Amino acid sequence: MTGIAVIATMAVGCVGTGGAVPPASGAVGGGESSASVSPAESAGTATAPAETAKPAGVEAVLASMSLEEKVGQLFMPVLYGQAADTVSGENQARFGVDTPAKMVARYRPGGVILFPWAGNVKNVRQVVALTNGLQKASPEIPLLIGADQENGQVSRLAPLVTNLPGASVIGSTGDPSLARRAAEVTGRELRVLGINLDFAPVADVNINPRNPVIGPRAYGSDPEKVAPMVAAAVRGFHDAGIAATAKHFPGHGDTNVDSHTGLPVIKHSLSQWKRLDAPPFAAAIGKDVDAIMTAHVVMPKLDPSGDPATLSRPILTGLLREKLGFDGVVSTDALDMAGVRKRYGDGEVAVRAIQAGVDLLLMPPDYREAHGALLAAVKSGKISEARLDQSVRRLLKLKAARGLLERAPVADPARAERVLRSAGHLKVARLINSRAR
Q1: What sign for the dihedral angle of Cα 341, 343, 347, 353?
Q2: Phi-psi region for residue 215, left (φ > 0), alpha (ψ -120 to 50) or beta?
Q3: Which end of the chain is less enclosed by CB atoms within 10 A, N or C?
Q4: Cβ(371)–Cβ(353) below 8 Å
Q5: What is the average pLDDT score of the chain?
């Protein structure tokens, strides 16, 4: 990717440093993990293939899809309930159907994201049954099932998973191999639960000590030290067979406003951005990160329009796609956050995000309005079908790269109970904590 060379020149050594991480073979358990969990169990290998025959390959699947199905692929909502057939008034109010399975069957979303507050996370066997049930509801194209499992401060699967330290603790060790091992542990545990995409690692550089939203979620405040940690974490997720997401582009580290409740403004010049914010994202791209999440922040010196990066074509297409050479999936941060809703309605936000270069619309607060607005924009030509196909193709390629396109793996609850918080995984957590400074 030509863009990687550009940033490598800007921040010498940042991109390539992740390559120095030692191989993962035997690394997760320090030689002991295999005694308690077999490699097949730890990897979460599928136990049963899907029965429905489907077109093979990304282009064949894309060609078989209706316009409505393509639009559906661009969404990743929250669904309510602890099982695919749980009846919830929240589902009825938001989607016009009462269960998660009926929502998936009606709208054909590209994926779903799990949260404890939505009733999705109760215990191991319940999560496995939920993810299997959701996949069963989407027989044509398996779902991306995502989680916000950074560890530390943001741990949506606690207390089911190993209590690993957060990024700042890992960063304090100065050892990228520990970032890789932590990510591999997390990825393996998510995978046996039926979760195939993690919204991690955080690639922000926590420049502002008063930052209310990043802080300990970042690996540190020095981009030359954060970049190899991020690269190593991406490798760890891939070792586990999980899709990784670097966040929050173009950088959320130098702010004292929380984008959940307001719209931060970061006044970095282009040269400052290249030096301070870009290196960890370039490092992640250098390790073939699957997705990059946008930030609901305004950077007026990168785009004077006043729009947040999530809706900024100069930032997402100009910097991320063209300068850094990223052609993976661009995901929004949650669209129910105040930072992205200051200027436009929920339907217009969805349309503007796709026009800016986004592929995946995460957690729209009014799903039916956003879905309808996007479908209407394509039908009217405001968004071309070719542009729609670009995003759908990227999402299908991500699924294919993680073995999810033609059949969804079926999670096994007994295997999950053996893998989660296994002796080898607990040992990794203790090791990292013992080396923290």
Answers
A1: negative
A2: left
A3: C
A4: no
A5: 89
Residue found by looking up tokens 């080898």 in the block = 424
Tell me how far apart the alpha carbons of residues 245 and 291 are, in angstroms, rounded to a whole number: 5
Helix ranges (DSSP H) in 111-175:
124-136, 167-173
Closest CA to 101 of 90, 111, 86, 113: 86
Two tokens, residue 287: 């390790």
**Angle, CA 202 vertex, CA 201 and CA 206 arms, to 5°:** 150
Active-site positions? 260, 333
Question: Nearest to residue 161, comparing CAs of 197, 127, 119?
Answer: 127
Length of the chain: 437
Q: What is the pLDDT of residue 211?
A: 82
Closest C-alpha among 197, 195, 241 to residue 411: 195
List residues bridging with 361 in a β-sheet. 75
Distance CA 150, CA 167 (A): 8
Cβ-contact 169, 152 below 8 angstroms: yes
Q: What is the pLDDT of residues 152-193, one digit of tens each?
A: 999 999 999 999 999 999 999 999 999 999 999 999 999 999
**Residues 6+ away with beta carbon under 8 Å from 261:** 338, 339
Element (H, E) at 146: strand 144-147
Structure tokens at 375: 């479908």
The Cα 186–Cα 425 span in angstroms is: 9
For residue range 115-151, what is the model confidence (pLDDT) as tens digits?
Answer: 999 999 999 999 999 999 999 999 999 999 999 999 9
117-147 CB burial, b ≥16 within 10 A, e <16: ebbbbeebebbbbbbbbbbebbeebbbbbbb
Query: How far apart are the C-alpha atoms of 266 and 279, rounded to whole Å?
Result: 17
Question: Do the Cβ atoms of 244 and 198 come closer than 8 Å?
Answer: yes
Rounded to an integer, what distance in angstroms lies between the CA atom of residue 51 and that of residue 385? 31
Model pLDDT for residues 307-346, shown as the tens digit of each residue: 999 999 999 999 999 999 999 999 999 999 887 898 899 9
